[in-house]
C-alpha cells in the first residue's frame, strides 16, 4: 500500500525527532541549579561520557564530552589513549552512525532551531566539508604530537575551536566569575569570534558546524555505511520522483548514496517517500531483522 507523501519542501522537522532532541539536551544538561549558580557539576555522573559534543564545563552538564575527555588524557605526559572514550563513540557509531548527530546532539539542535527555511537548500563546498576530517585527525593525534618541553600537550580543539564549549562554558561560566573574567584575553575573544561566525552561519546554512568542523560528525560519518542501523534503498520500489532528494536538508542524492557520510539520519527522506523505497533498517550479517520507518 502506498503512503501519502508529505510535502518534501516543508522545513518543519519530524515532531518525534524534535522531542528526542529536546529530551537528550535536557538529560545531558540536567544540573539545572548549575545554570543559576554558575557552578559546574562534579558528581559521580561526570565520569560518564556522553556520545555527542557537550562541554564538560557547562554548568548544566551531568556527563563528560568525549572530545574533551580524549584530548585531556592524550595531552598528559604519558599520552594515554582512553579506551573507554574510544569504546563509547565506536559503539555509538557502530549502532547508528550519524544518528547521534541527527537525534541526540544538543549543539545540532541549536543549529536547526536557528536555521531559516532556505538554509536547507544551501550547499557546502566539498573542500569545506573535508575540514572536519582534519579536525578529527587533530583531536586524535595533535595533543600527543604538539607538546611542551615537559612533554605536555593540550586539548587543542577545545582550546582553539569548539564553539559549543565557548557557548556552554566560556560564556555561561566565564563571564559571571570575576576571577575568570580577569583572565580573559585574546584567546577568549578569538573563541567568541569563532562562535559568532558559526552562529551567523547557522541562520543561513543548515548545520554548518556539523558539516565543516565537528570531529565527532566526521567519525560517525565514516561509520554510516557499516553501522547496524542504516538506510535501506529498494530500487524496485522507487518511482524516481526525487522527493527524498528534495526533502534532504543536506542535499544528498539519497537514492544513490543512502548511507553517505554527510547523512545525519534525520530520516526526512523516509517520511516523504511515497512507495516505501527508503527505510531505516537494522541488519545483522547483511540480513534484515527489523524495520523502523520515521
UniProtKB/TrEMBL annotation:
Keyword line: 4Fe-4S, Electron transport, Iron, Iron-sulfur, Membrane, Metal-binding, Transmembrane, Transmembrane helix, Transport
Q: Where is the 4Fe-4S ferredoxin-type domain?
A: 250-283
**One GO molecular function term?**
4 iron, 4 sulfur cluster binding
- Which InterPro entries does the record associate with it? 4Fe4S_Fe-S-bd (IPR017896), 4Fe4S_Fe_S_CS (IPR017900), Electron_Trans/Redox (IPR051684)
Determine the domain of life of the protein's source.
Answer: Bacteria
For this record, the Gene Ontology CC terms, alphabetical, are: plasma membrane
- Tell me the Pfam families matching this sequence: Fer4 (PF00037), Fer4_5 (PF12801)
| KW Transport (keyword) present | yes
List residues traversing the bilayer: 83-109, 130-148, 154-175, 187-206
Q: Which PANTHER family match?
A: FERREDOXIN-TYPE PROTEIN NAPH
Please report the name of this protein according to its UniProt entry: 4Fe-4S ferredoxin, iron-sulfur binding domain protein
